[in-house]
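Posting for a labmate who doesn't have an account.
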Amino acid sequence: MSAGQKRRDDRNNAALFFLIIVIAAAMWVYAVNMTFSIPKEKIAAGYFYALLATLTDIKLWLPPLFGIVFGMIVAVQFYIYYKTGFNGGDFISKLRGPDMVSAARLKDITKEYWKKQLSFMGIPVPTSKENQHYAVAGSTGTGKSQAISAYIESAHARGDQTVCVDPNGGFMEKFWKEGDFILNPFDARTQSWSIFNEIKTAYDVEQYAVSMIPKSPTTEGEQWNAMARTIVAEVMLKLVRVREGTTEKLVYWLVEATNEQLQKMLAGTSAAGMFHGAEETLGSVRAVLTRYVVPHKFLSVEPGQESFSIRKWLESGTGNLWITWREDMLEATKPLISCWIDVICASSLSSNVEAAKDMHLIIDELDSLSKLNYLIQAATKGRKHLFKIFAGFQSLAQLDETNGKNDALTLRNSLRNFGCLGVSEGDTFTTEEVSKGLGEHEVLRKKISLSGGTMGAKAGSSIETNSERLVKPSEISGLPDLCGYLKLAGDIPVARIQMKHKKRVSVTEPMIIIKNKWTTDLTTAAKNRLKFGVASAVI
């Protein structure tokens, strides 16, 4: 049994009381020795006389008073240190279940001196747990950005590389370093990237076709997506073999070419059979291709710019990688962003284990992206590659909708270092799931009962066993900003954390819009538009 997580761990009360008495007595003895000169042969009588004089001599009672005050200050610090954050009723002892401790105690439990540790919500992560991935949930404005920023800061402090999927470029603005890379088709500093930069062998097209066309969370949707992936793989393979592997050609053949042209190109391949049958089926497949391939048209190749390969960068590159977007760009680039993340995850799993280096994939607003096929595999198999995932999201329901319930649950199970900040009162699904995830304990409580009789009321007591959650859903929705609960992997206790807001200096622009045909102001572009009526008349 354990004294467990009462609202305050009172196992040290006796020691604290004794400490206050000892400090006060020591101060009094010091005051007596400074005031009187007591011979050794009369030491007992001398101290007895001093004791009688204490109440009337300020020089004797003031120092022990200071000692008591000092002792009480120490006791208050101990009170704060041992205050568990558990808000349920006090109990006699805990039978089983997780413990809850203060943030200060959790720091002492997880701190490893002489080692550079990652920081999660202000708590050092044990090195044995850091490859078990991270997740932080919370509504907008509750402190997710502060938690992610502290994590990035700790990773960079020990020389680790990061890939950060960064809405609005907020993290890049604070942590950009010379030699870093950007992927954003609408940022002037972006790298020149194409899916063909990642293909080394024929079987790579199958792997990266999955990155381009994600698996659907529904059975019916996956039917069309699987057929679209087959077409993508065969088109990529054909273009590579004829040395025409460019994004422009890929977009043309998958989106712009007619059914007859595409059928002729894919004759003799595994995709040829799709062109024999109902037109509606082919129409559904091409709709999927349009949805996921069209965003690749935004990938412009600047003259003289060297092609960037995510795969090569993961193997031997330096610096960090930033995948940014602005909120008004998300719908146009969501399939492209999801493709990049999938390529990163798939490539990390195929890297040489012996040459593995610490790499962190940090994804903010995970629930706003498309389904990421290889993210689950990277979460379940990436540990031996030293590949760490940190995901931030607002709603578990949205995560389920995007990935499907089973895949979303598998992903959540893999992100074992978990923190939760305040969640909207209306999102009862998230608060309920988080409450269950933080665990429940079984405790013994004393129950007092009153029974009436002819001789009056009679009190009785009994011991009963209670099972209850450490944290109720209402406690999660009621959290103030920058405050949350943290559960690290394994048997490490739960703690309620109060983070501090840290203002960081901007070191670069979060976004510099590129000037090309995709970002031209439509009002300006209208001045140079074709006069379709005149043109058709001439034709």
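Reply:
Got it, the structure tokens are right above this. Residues 13-83 form one domain.
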